[in-house]
Amino acid sequence: MDVNAEIKDAYPVLPWRPASMKFSFPGAGFWMASIILTMTIRQVSLWQLGGAANGRIGDMVLLLVVGLWFGGRCLTGRLDMIRNRLDLAVIIFLLFCVMSVLWADNVHGGGFRSLKLLRNGMLYFVLADYLSGDFPSRYKRIAICVLITGLFQSVGYIVAIGQNGGVSALSALLQAESVASNDPILAVVRKDQGGAMFLQGVASWLPLGMFLGFSIRRTMRSPLVSLGNWILICSMGVLTVLSGTRAAMVAFAAGLVVIFLFTVPDLTGNRAIMVVVGAAFLFFGAWLLGLLGLVGSRMSVQTLQSDPSVVARLAFIEFALDRFSESPWVGVGVGNIFPDGLTAVHNVYMQVLGEVGVVGGAIFLWILALWAGYLISASAFATRLGDQMQKQFAISILGASVFFFTYFLVGHDLGSAEPWLLMSMTSGLHNSLRRKGFESIGHGRK
Question: Whole-model pTM above 0.85?
Fold first, then answer.
């Protein structure tokens, strides 16, 4: 029996209006690309919000696109924003975070953080809607934009390294036996990280670019373009390790393990040999460049025992738990548990628990469960269809998501855009597959 007919029998068509293959306003592809390409630019500041933060060009572009998107939906009568349970969970979480400002001690800090979360929520919904139609081509466009942005940020990072000691300082770092987070030797890779041009999130944006670049490798028809993609992926990997961020190193390894586990059933014959040879080549290259030594110097027991950042993170978690104990059920409000004036607790799970309590934490865990569950189901669904491209998209997005799930343990922040990008891709992939006539992807209901 034809596999498509079999799945259609198993998953009947939903009685709902499917997502249109056309987006809500003209030139949507250009505007969506503009959001991604301007997201990491920090040099152009358009306004200041109470002296606490700058409104950057990427924020202005996002607001413009959201206005066009919402206007287009109003004109076409498409006002439904909740298409799956992940959309519902995100809306509930955002509303609860905004409501928490009502019982927060620091209303100004809570309001500012709420605006950042709402900005990321707007990014999630507009991008998920865009991807819900023709997912493969639109996803490829977004992934290429992330790669281009990663290229620019990599150049900015290289410029910053040159401004802070260059090759000689970098050589000293790679030869050091033990490197703590407060070691001045790290200045060459830690100071600025963007050549005063881009945001400093090298350890999160570049891995995102690597995972997405890996996902679209089979869609590139030109051997030259494919080679350039691999060179860029490897370059971003080198720069990620050079940043000396332990969380990124561990999280990236976790993401690669997930991709390997989901890909290994397809590794037979020549493909398996190519993977082994490629892994050996990368390992040798990392050793030759001194990257393995840097990983060892940052991850050694001696370094971890004496590194003040480890002690500080444990103190941050204790601080978050203390704040959580003040209001266990609903938390003390977003933007109200920052220790020592810092912008994050360096543990997203503890920060969410302290800010919005058990109720908000449960909603957040619901989001993570749906996020991972949709991707795992999408991979299984694509396998059943024999669609290797869609399967690779799902697996790569899952690997990138696991990267952030791991990174959340010791760093990062929900105020950053990268996790919301991946969530929107997850929702868009789910909607795109479901609109083809299936009730769900591995779930028995909507």
Answer: yes
